[in-house]
Amino acid sequence: xxxxxxxxxxxxxxxxxxxxxxxxxxxxxxxxxxxxxxxxxxxxxxxxxxxxxxxxxxxxxxxxxxxxxxxxxxxxxxxxxxxxxxxxxxxxxxxxxxxxxxxxxxxxxxxxxxxxxxxxxxxxxxxxxxxxxxxxxxxxxxxxxxxxxxxxxxxxxxxxxxxxxxxxxxxxxxxxxxxxxxxxxxxxxxxxxxxxxxxxxxxxxxxxxxxxxxxxxxxxxxxxxxxxxxxxxxxxxxxxxxxxxxxxxxxxxxxxxxxxxxxxxxxxxxxxxxxxxxxxxxxxxxxxxxxxxxxxxxxxxxxxxxxxxxxxxxxxxxxxxxxxxxxxxxxxxxxxxxxxxxxxxxxxxxxxxxxxxxxxxxxxxxxxxxxxxxxxxxxxxxxxxxxxxxxxxxxxxxxxxxxxxxxxxxxxxxxxxxxxxxxxxxxxxxxxxxxxxxxxxxxx
Length: 444
Description:
Layout: E1 4-6, H1 12-15, H2 22-36, E2 40-42, E3 48-49, E4 61-63, H3 83-95, E5 99-104, E6 114-118, E7 123-128, H4 167-184, E8 188-191, H5 199-207, E9 210-212, E10 215-217, E11 220-223, H6 229-240, E12 248-250, H7 252-263, H8 271-274, H9 278-281, E13 286-289, H10 293-297, H11 306-313, E14 319-323, H12 324-329, H13 341-350, E15 356-361, E16 365-370, E17 379-384, E18 391-396, E19 403-411, E20 421-422, E21 428-433, E22 437-443
Parallel strand pairs: 1-2, 1-14, 2-5, 5-8, 8-11, 11-12, 12-13, 13-14
Antiparallel strand pairs: 3-4, 6-7, 9-10, 15-16, 16-17, 17-22, 18-21, 19-20, 19-22
Helix pairs in contact: 2-3, 5-6, 7-11
């Protein structure tokens, strides 16, 4: 399915000294990212934000249609740049066959121009929006509590939540969706905080009959539903009921398992098959990830040996997402070597296809096989949680009389190249991984 890159982290324009230049900065990386094997870029929210405490990451939307054109909320450009620079990024990405995923924030707004009296609760609220784009002006009737619904599914701080059952709001949101796909050229959506509103909004975004260049266009979609696997799958089922373009969901339970793998001393690899994850139950609608902007900056980062987690998501099923801060700022890309994320992205795109079969597992050793499909021949993945020496086992694979060589590997203490292995006529061979590390083998 490809590999997604989350192209931002919290306060990235400030941290990397690229304020108002982030779109240009991403665009400069596009050729190398495409060469490595990335297939899609998830961008941060593109609209003009409220910026109440200074420039923000966009999760406080004010003017959905101001992409850095209008002098409002403290600047003309957004914190990431201008509309022209954004469109240049989209064009460059498409020319390198990378798709673009827009981060859409549909639950709440911020930065209203005036307070209004909400007659339902007889209280003043900041709900009058007169954006300079002139598009999607809002008043109190557009927000909870509204005339159209009595229950607000989830609040986000003190920002007023949009009432999606208001026909005007619902229509304007669908217009916004069309604008993203048909005019700006985005190829899909990342839906922020979907707990805050009904799943029918997501179904409408996914199901809409978009047209691009005179042809029907079907967008990709992935939702942020931060919860247990069972609750997430319940939401996915609700959103995808009678939906011909199903939406995916990020696998937060899997990420917690991967954090335990990396940070918990004595973590048993048997947990890899018993931990309840979305990937385990429904891999076809799962986006796997190791880190994101919220977890890293809300006190839940993975501290140790993060490449173990990346080796897992980039060899297993699901749609893997790589975090920009890990790839660039933490220097885990290690492009040009077999020891980092870049090599694992290449492994995913060249080899990781077909059914997943566990060939061996115990507390400290996990050996898995991807059977291959079409032009991706499959792989053998070995994960060693033993910190003192190499670890491996004799296993029976799908391939008889085949020669395997390592295509990616890493260890905290030993970066020696694993030796080639050959299966016998029954498909048996020994596969090893270095101490507290992994190795990925493919047919030579």
